Amino acid sequence: MYQQNNVFRTLCMGNFKDLLRQVTFGPAMMIWLDISGSRKEAPNENFARELMELFTLGVDNYSQSDVVAASHAFTGYVTNGVETNYDFDTMEGWGYWWTDWHDFDDKTFMGQTGPWTGDDIINMILDRDECAVHICKKLYKWFLYDHIDLDFIDSMADVLRSNNYEIKPALEYLFSSEHFYDPTFYGANVQNPVQLYLGTIKRLKMEEQPFDTNYFTEVQNHLDMILFEPPDVNGWLGYRAWINSNTLPLRKAMICALINHESPFGSFGNYLNIPSVAQSLVNDNDDTYHIIQIIDNLVLLFLGIEINETLSEQLLNIALDGAEPYDWNISLPAHHAQWSRFEDLLMYMIRLPEFQLS
């Protein structure tokens, strides 16, 4: 799984065909979906089916006969485990082709007949319009919203196809479109546990704190997202599946612990510099009262929305506790009561429903 993750990191902005081939013949996929050891006398259909259903075409865009043909094409590939001397062209180090096990007979796949190999199947899949559409749907859902705009997807898929499945131009098309910045999509997705936790650590500027590595494992375990251990080949369901009666209280407690140190999972050895967080949100060239600047910036940083009058008043009341905005001073020492109120402000904001969204 570590090697597969490295492949994703290396090729995530590259060519989808290269990514698909490296994942297909990497040890994680070959072992998990039984490519390795599949032979002509007993071809295994697991990978052939998931290749089309999950990774490239989507449901209803292939037939059972296509699955059978592809399973025969993917016979004879085996892996000798995870090694570091992987060569993409020869597949030495991760996997190799054992001709005695491969089915060299003609196979009919997507209406085309020939002595196809696994590489041939991948190429024929990429030739189909449905593949580009399926990939763009996945990118759209990850970066924007679970409910897709089919007209936009068709246009995005055209970009992906016309650029020979280079991923970067398709993402540039998405990110530079007016559609992407439609306010409808603000806060439209639920953050996964890793996004939520590590994103908050970065927002609070705690990256350099000495976290206990075991603590991160505990957090992942309790929130059902252990890195490198997806529940199945489809990965995590994501989106609204992250929120339920068990996980929501834990998600809130996990983030609150970064501020109040009351962790449900034990000590994690960090310290939040409250004054430093506030100081990072103030522009000295702005004449607006410091606390108002801080609250406006926190709302954008934590909630991703523009502040409204009602929310502004609620947050000011917590931070000031009867004082005036001009009484608030970022130069006060760390033991001053002002910082206790600021901690209360942070705790209030991270408990808001909007904090769970992205």
Beta-strand share of residues = under 5%
Described by the principal axes of the CA atoms, the overall outline is elongated
Order of helices and strands: HHHHHEEEEHHHHHHHHHHH
Domains, number: 4
Uncertain runs: none
Number of helices: 16
Mean pLDDT: 89
N- to C-terminal distance: 27 Å
Tell me about this structure.
The chain has helices at residues 2-11, 16-24, 27-32, 46-56, 64-73, 118-126, 129-143, 150-162, 167-175, 193-203, 213-222, 247-260, 274-279, 290-303, 309-320, 337-350, and strands at residues 77-79, 95-97, 107-109, 112-114. The chain is mainly alpha-helical and 358 residues long. It folds into four domains: 2-126, no CATH class; 129-185; 193-260, no CATH class; 274-356, no CATH class. Strands 1-2 form a two-stranded antiparallel ribbon. A two-stranded antiparallel ribbon has the order 3-4. Strand 3 (107-109) and strand 4 form a beta hairpin. Helix 7 packs across helix 8. It starts with a helix and ends in an 8-residue tail after the last helix. 26% of the residues are buried. The mean pLDDT is 89.
